[in-house]
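Design review, sub-item: ligand-bound model
Attendees: FS, YL, KQ
YL presented the inputs for the fe (ii) ion complex:
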Amino acid sequence: MSEPLPPIASLRAGATAAIAASDLRLKTGLAQETARRWHQRRLSLRSPLDPALPERPGRPEKPELVRPGHTEKRSLHTVPGRIAMLHALAHIELNAVDLALDIVARFASEPVPHSFFDGWMQVAFEEAKHFNLVCDRLRALGADYGDLPAHDGLWQAAHSTRNDLTARLAVVPLILEARGLDVTPSLQDKMRETGDLDSAEVLRIIYEDEKGHVAIGAKWFRFLCARERKDPAKTFQALVRANFRGALKAPFNDIARAEAGLTPSFYRALASISHA
Ligand SMILES: [Fe+2]
Ligand SMILES: [Fe+2]
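KQ shared the predicted structure:
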């Protein structure tokens, strides 16, 4: 069933090939194998023949991509409601795989320590794991990723910050992934109430891993600010205002955010002014 993976010439080449792959088993397989080899110090960061990054990540024919607001309602007390919620989550995780890999491939020439790439390949590995776990739950409920339409907005965040690593870290881990910390605990409780303990367990695993993703984002965001002698909270606010159009919605999971290094001084000011 699983075909052998193509050769991986470097970290950047492996990440780029995974982004380009439209077969999602191949994408997640390449992401995880590239991460494994990088962490085992079996790959160089770049090689001269690395392929160029594609304009957009590879995607299968389905799901159909629609504008936000055109996807199904999600009452968890019915199987179709749970399928809709898990399908939306699978789509978020799939985008997260490509977003983590894009940080690695796009910014492979940035003057940052190698441990920067260790962190983002750990994120890519775990996002691939999350996608596969959620897909397993969809299949157990008689569905699959691709059965329902999905939002076509997540890649936009990556696109608008493609030339600026500091802005990318502000928007992807510190806005989008931090949002996951706010909403996942109550979702996990609701899922447990429905009796679907296997799906609740998948949400628990995701939540635990996502704390680490926000922490990796905060650590490197602070690193880049310190290097340029910039105030991290003020820099964050300026970059979010310039690069992110959505509102920051309270309530925030202040404790989990702070444990990850994202303190209220970063995001409070944005929550009060950006609900227009
Ligand atoms: Fe995830
Ligand atoms: Fe994540």
